[in-house]
Amino acid sequence: NFTPNAFVEEIVSEMKEKIGNDKVVLGLSGGVDSTVAAVLLNKAIGQNLYCIFVNNGLLRKNEFESVLDQYKGMGLNVKGVDAGERFLSELTGVSDPETKRKIIGRVFIEVFDDESHLLTDVKWLAQGTIYPDVIESVSVKGPSATIKSHHNVGGLPDYMKLKIVEPLRMLFKDEVRRVGATLGIDPELLGRHPFPGPGLSIRILGDITPEKVRILQDVDKVFIDGLKSWGLYDKVWQAGAILLPVNSVGVMGDERTYEKVVALRAVESTDGMTADWVHLPYEFLMKISNDIINKVRGVNRVVYDISSKPPATIEWE
Ligand code: XMP
User: Fold this and answer.
1) Binding residues for ATP, per the UniProt record (predicted)?
2) Which CATH superfamily includes the segment(s) 4-190?
3) Pocket test for ligand 1, best of 315, 316, 317 (most atoms within 8 A of CB)
4) Short-list 53, 64, 55, 58, CA closest to 91
5) Is 30 annotated as a binding residue?
6) Is this complex scored with an ipTM above 0.90?
7) 34 marked among binding-site residues
8) Under CATH, what is the fold of the domain 209-304?
């Protein structure tokens, strides 16, 4: 039976012993896992933990700024690196999902590596890897290994030559959340839906442009804020919006429009391996659809994804 307090005590003393006075670098993503890993390590080694939070330009609207402030408020030794333009320029013209992931993985490592070279004498790389990440990365072999290359596991270039420390390696997601609660982390942060490392890039079908990112961030914000204000956010395991690579005809006043279609997706799941679409109330869907079409320039149609996994993966790419 898992007890968060005992886990914290044990892992903190284990980390202290293992790491000693060495310096550790850790990439924060804004998600639950890396945050809990950082707070645990901060407890063990304090300011010898150097956190780096990279903006890949594909985060949710305003997320980079607000989460960075939150991290600073938690006393973490964190540096925010805004590399949005670099990522977006490398992604220009790229439509293939796996190529997008590879580019984002590579650029992330380059940015992260540049940053960690600015720190002297770092010996360790800490990661927020949790048990399901470990399983999924080692169990899928052969052609299906490329179903989705989760770039946050094992994506370490040789030239970094750092030792790896993964305090959450044996934990499931709900255990990570309970550990986070024990550590006094903001419940809102702990209750956040999972969000993929490649961010909105795999929810923009086809090629990525700054304008498409802007549209999707705005749509996503209406949807997520709506879920929160209707008390539905915590009832859903993961939700987000997808920008489709099609235009559809609409009318506005006397004018014919030819604009983008967005899909909304909300799923129930325990581990992301299987998922059911959520029966969101019709009144909610009606309100959100109106809000999106009225508030987000460039969108004239909203559809709701009623597919479960398998076979439909949670992300569309
Ligand atoms: P799928 O789409 O495979 O997603 O049903 C299952 C869970 O994994 C997330 N996901 C990713 N996370 N890098 C990540 O860090 C990725 O490339 C990636 N692809 C999917 C997805 O958001 C869902 O929570």
Assistant:
1) 29-35
2) HUPs (3.40.50.620)
3) 315
4) 58
5) yes
6) yes
7) yes
8) GMP Synthetase; Chain A, domain 3 (3.30.300)
